[in-house]
Amino acid sequence: MAGEPQDDCLFCKIVDGSIPATIVRETETTVAFRDINPQAPTHVLVIPKAHHKDAAALAAEAPGLAADVLRETQAVADEEQLESYRIVFNTGGGAGQTVWHAHAHVLGGRGLAWPPG
Ligand code: 5GP
Ligand code: ZN
């Protein structure tokens, strides 16, 4: 069911602590942790604690929670003192999504080309 933890989900396991992560922020509804394979000096993932498979599902199933995630991306950018940064929600395999638990990438600390390719 939407929002319920999934046994086979890596990010649900980070939420429940059974897989370790370098957590930089946590709220009642979200966790922010460093990406294991950083693509920029700052590369933090912000996730809802509840399982929703991608950003589209999160927005449709729990819009308030989607707002929490977005607010946290801003908090991460502030904490990391990022002047310019990029928030990315890869949505679907063709866009590079590999983990099927909604997550926002916060990328910064270097120049970021646009369009991204
Ligand atoms: P996606 O490709 O789905 O948009 O992003 C998934 C991200 O999760 C990738 O950037 C990948 O490096 C990161 N990732 C995959 N496995 C782990 C892990 O075990 N721990 C952490 N911290 N990040 C992970
Ligand atoms: Zn999950």
TrEMBL record:
Output the superkingdom of the source species: Bacteria
Q: Name one Pfam family in it.
A: HIT
Q: Which InterPro entries match?
A: Histidine_triad_HIT (IPR001310), HIT-like (IPR011146), HIT-like_sf (IPR036265)
Which ranges does the record mark as transmembrane?
Answer: none
HIT domain mapped to chain residues: 10-117
Q: Which residues does the entry assign to the active site, renumbered to this chain?
A: 103 (tele-amp-histidine intermediate)
Q: Where is this motif: Histidine triad motif?
A: 101-105
Q: Which PANTHER family match?
A: HISTIDINE TRIAD HIT PROTEIN
Database matches in Gene3D superfamilies: HIT-like
| PROSITE patterns, alphabetized | HIT_2
- To which species is this protein native? Streptomyces pilosus
Q: Which GO molecular function terms does the record list?
A: catalytic activity
Q: What is this protein called?
A: Histidine triad nucleotide-binding protein
